[in-house]
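Task: sequence design from structure.
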């Protein structure tokens, strides 16, 4: 029997499989890279953990709580900063037989551009934008909650990199289709649906 061809073209990047490990699932892949017997050929791409311009410690524990209705988490984007990822982490994993996409976050529109520029000069195959972060300079609302602001982030990132750009939409909006159309018009190469749903336990 002829082997099943699972190759796809995603945002212009050829992947060996449509199965991908999403941002946060395996951190920056350091532990997975040391795991014996893992078949990387079955994974089309790995999306790295969310990365900011400067290192972030994240929220204080506990960060994950199990409730009757499911699991609540508040990690806080813990990461060592974009420059550290590019200079010290990517060189240790780039030999693995899969594709890598950065996942970037920022507290200002300009910061998204700076992080994208750092990853542009790296071996990642594309950049995923987390627009669920709060816009610190404009009152704290998430970038992804306003179509115009979301589009501005995408335009800024597209100017900063020649790599494919994927926009990860926030579900915590009144009409996600308006945001989706805005980022498409701004030039995003693909859409990731969706980021974390807000929750509460009573």
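Answer:
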């Amino acid at each position: 029997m002829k082997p099943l061809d699972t190759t796809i073209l995603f945002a212009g990047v050829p992947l060996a499989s449509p199965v991908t490990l999403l941002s946060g699932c395996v951190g920056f892949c350091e532990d997975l890279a040391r795991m014996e017997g893992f078949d990387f050929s079955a994974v089309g791409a790995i999306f790295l953990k969310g990365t900011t311009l400067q290192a972030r410690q994240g929220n204080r524990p506990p960060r994950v709580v199990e409730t009757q209705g499911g699991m609540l988490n508040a990690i806080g984007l813990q990461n060592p900063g974009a420059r550290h990822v590019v200079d010290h982490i990517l060189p240790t994993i780039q030999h693995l037989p899969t594709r890598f996409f950065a996942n970037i976050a920022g507290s200002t529109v300009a910061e998204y551009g700076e992080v994208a520029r750092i990853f542009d000069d790296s071996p990642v195959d594309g950049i995923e934008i987390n627009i669920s972060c709060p816009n610190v300079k404009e009152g704290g609302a998430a970038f992804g909650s306003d179509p115009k602001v979301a589009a501005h982030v995408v335009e800024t990132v597209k100017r900063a990199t020649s790599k494919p750009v994927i926009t990860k939409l926030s579900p915590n909006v009144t009409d996600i289709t308006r945001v989706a159309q805005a980022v498409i018009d701004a030039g995003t190469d693909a859409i990731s649906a969706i980021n974390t749903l807000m929750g509460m336990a009573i």
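Residues 44 and 136 are 35 Å apart (CA to CA).
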